[in-house]
Protein 1
Amino acid sequence: MMIPSSAPPPGPWTAAAMIAAIVLSSTAGEVLTAAAMKSIGDLDEIRARSGLKGAIRAVLTCPLFFAGVGFLALAFFALLFALNHLDLSLVAPASASLTLVTNAIAGKFFLKENVDRRRWTAAMLVCIGVYLLAH
Amino acid sequence: MAHHTLTPRQYLILGLVALCAPLGDTCLSRGMTHLPPISLAHPGTLIAAVFTPWITAGIALLIGFFASYLTALSWADLTFVLPATAFGNVIVAFLSRFWLHEPISVMRWAGILLITVGVGFVAQGPSLTEKPAPLSENAGPAAEAEMEQVR
């Protein structure tokens, strides 16, 4: 649905809320998908043992995977909604770079990954880099 | 089994993740801009768009991206895979500069440099967090004695 061209542009808080919705749903999706894949195990080994069908079956019978895909779909629709109201040059770099930071935090606390100084530095460098590249 | 250093095949899968996502998006973008505006009142035109060559190629590339992304997540940490695959943005920037002859501003060159350094940082570390293995029933007597001491 298109908003009329006469509609006022959203304020900074509304814009921030739209970007936050993309970032949070995307982070939830990434973390749940990563947790699902860790619970399934090494897909290369499963494929070597039970073939491609076995690997696909292992993924499609994992409920966590569908929860992750659900949140990723939510992030996609939140992105479409935001693009309907905000400029692509704001939404794309802001959501892509912020998601890297929130994923590092979520990876540390929810997936218990060892996010050491090296990974924090990498996440921050890539975050700023993606922002600069998209501008 | 946990792999902390990647095999050439695993580097290939990370490369596929990095390449397929931006190339798929580019194909979709190219396909959609060559079509007349699509209205939600005529959803049939959207379905017909799926079968145009650029969009079909874009969808195939994005399916390839998701399959290789899931494979990478099965043997590496999320905080390792995401920065490593951001290198795809750099590849697309180089393609647009040298293939499509689009100009790249100083800001974008700075972004390319930061992403490359960031990916270099994360790629030098372990790809997977080592988690202590749970003691199995077949654990040796030394492990049993250690557990007794903890109790």
Protein 2
Amino acid sequence: MAKYLYNEEAVANLKLGDTSVLDRLVDFESARAAHLKKEHAKKDKRMTIGEAVATYVQDGDIITDGGFSYVRTPHQAFYEIIRQGKKNLQMIGAPNTNQSFFIAYGLVTHSHSSYTGAEMRGIDKVYDRALKAGKITILSEWSHGGVAQGFKAAQLGVPGVFSKQMLGSDLVRYNPYLKVVQHPLKADKDPSVFVPALYPDCAIIHCHAADKYGNAYIYGPAVNDLAVAAAARKLIITAEEIVPESDIRYNKQGQIIPFFYADAVVEMPFGALPGSMPGCYYWPRQWWEKCMRFGGVSEENNLAFCNEWIMGTKNQFEFVDKLGGAKWIAEARRQTKAAEADNEDIDFSYEEYTLTHDSGIYY
Amino acid sequence: MRDLNAPANPLETLAYIIAQQIEDHSIVYIGTGIPMVAGILAKKTHAPNITLVYESGGQDPIEGDMPWSVGCPMTWRKSPTIMEMSYSFAQCYNGYVDIGFLGFAQVDMYGNINTHMIGKDYHHPKVRLTGSGGNNDLSSLTEKMVLVGLQTPDKFPERVDFITSVGWLAGGDSRREAGLIGNGPAAVISPWGVYDFHPVSKRMRVKSLTPGVTFELAQQLTGFELLKPEGAIPETKLVTPEALKVIRAEVDPRGVFTVMPTQ
């Protein structure tokens, strides 16, 4: 029996039977209880990614992306989840690039979706096939801004926000969490969408630097991560480097996740690969083209591609080796610094992957 | 380096027409793809003082190379500030953004957009598309919207298969009554024509057509009855050789977004 009075039209449209599957995402009481039970003492929380995933990612969890699509996203931590074979995960894809890797291996069964795809590289045919085959159930349709407001409401410490986004659209008819309400003060008719505060079970956020307690520094777009970090019942911080607390205190003020949100701190250089990491490395663009184009052709292709790159590597260092090792690191750093105007302009030309041309070069 | 003298392809034509919608000194919200080309083209030609805003949070970057994605560092290159996503969209709600560009897989006679799925059955679509991303947020909040995409009867149906983003909803006053902000869609741009909306009924109307495209042909490429403007239909001003050179040599020299896609 569900604890909430969901939008009935959306529940019917999505053909959801037992709506209790929806509860945890909006269950403030249990999120607050989880936050109270966290380690509040300032302790060393460092561990390996294997330990962090084994301890804090449980079957059935609602997990979410940090970063933006394929920028500063914790791909390598997610690959560890795949290697450990977690099950029945719900995933919030906002923006999403990781669901399809999970779906390929049957880890994610339920999806909260605001975007799946890779912009001009194309629609996500893996997601398309999985939906048609009934391998995943969509639990809610969102806009990016709608999910962002749900996370932000959690960070603000309020039950939800009134939004002018998603009104009148089919998103409201396919999202059990949304209800259209009248502005309580306005004399005239003035509808808004009530967006409840959202509390994922487990968030993994990849940062530039963290101290051993979990104070974590983000450079470049924070996207939803400061809000997600505050909302999640469990938070794994992965970081390009572990730095002394004094470095955070004296040098890294700005976009900081406070230590007491974090449950685990993992040193994980190249943790955003194959995504980009601002200041550190640019995308292996051909990798994404191959992923979308070659993997898009068929389930067999996609699994072959994922097996090669995800199951075929034990960790991010082997992933770097496959991309081209030290040469790749140097090129990728040069590219991101040029993109950020932190070194001289360079030529961004590269050999695009197509089904008939695979250079095997990833920079 | 791209051939600077080859005839314009439809993507370059689109980019140019979109760029013409941008007035100098305005704040422009840019989606991925062709709008990125158009924004940068406008900045390099007739509108050097515009400020570009991207949904990943980047805004007001210094000029650089073509972003590979809306999350690319080129969208926040030495930006004075980078917004969290919720705050980025909030700038549209709060009235700081003048114009936004939205792509579509389908657009209907009232300018409603579908980027979710093609097919009549949500649970068994012919094809599942990307979903909203920031499309719905911009369409709900932005003062002036321009919709951009390809035109066939399937892509211009009477009713979209899924309303991802509300344009004029069911026409008339229905957008305002639904509670949405802003002035709604101002124009739809396809390679064949530029369309606006009747001021009262809010039905799509021909504004100008690409040279060589007649009203009858535009109608055949549309899945609903197009309205005709009063008087002769003007020709859309096509990309000039000068602008085409700027696109190919300066804006998108590697053809990330303006070379017809290969597979």
